[in-house]
Amino acid sequence: MSTFDGLCPHCGKPVQVNSETHELSKKNKSSNETFADALKKLNAEKKARKDQFEKKQKDLNDQKKKSDKVFKDNLDSIKEKGLGEKPIRDIDL
User: Which of 17, 22, 34, 84 could form a disulfide with 78 if both were Cys (CB 3.0 to 4.6 A apart)?
Assistant: First the structure.
């Protein structure tokens, strides 16, 4: 551990610091900036995934509504033609 007066070897400012402490604080600062960048990236990815999920959910709900409508239409057409009311046969066992 060395203490010196003069210019900081890392930032060039005139200071009296412990060089190891200054190196550590510089690493922590860049680490904090990196953490903030990572957090921003994570939040952006989270928002993108949420938007994608909501879009997919909306598409699936629309598809379900369409398929339910087609099913009801088919069921109604079968009832209109009288094909849906066939008598049940007794099976001899």
Answer: 84
Length of the chain: 93
Given a contact cutoff of 8 angstroms between Cβ atoms, the answer to whether 17 and 8 are in contact is yes
- In the numeric block, which tokens belong to residue 74? 């088919």
Residues 6+ apart with CB under 8 A from 86: none
Q: Could you tell me which residues come within 8 angstroms of residue 13 by beta carbon, excluding any fewer than 6 positions away? A: 7
The C-alpha atoms of residue 34 and residue 16 are separated, in whole angstroms, by 27
3-class secondary-structure state, position 27: helix
b/e burial code for range 24-56 (CB count within 10 A of at least 16 → b): eeeeeeeeeeeeeeeeeeeeeeeeeeeeeeeee
Interval 33-62: pLDDT, tens: 788 888 999 999 999 999 999 999 999 999
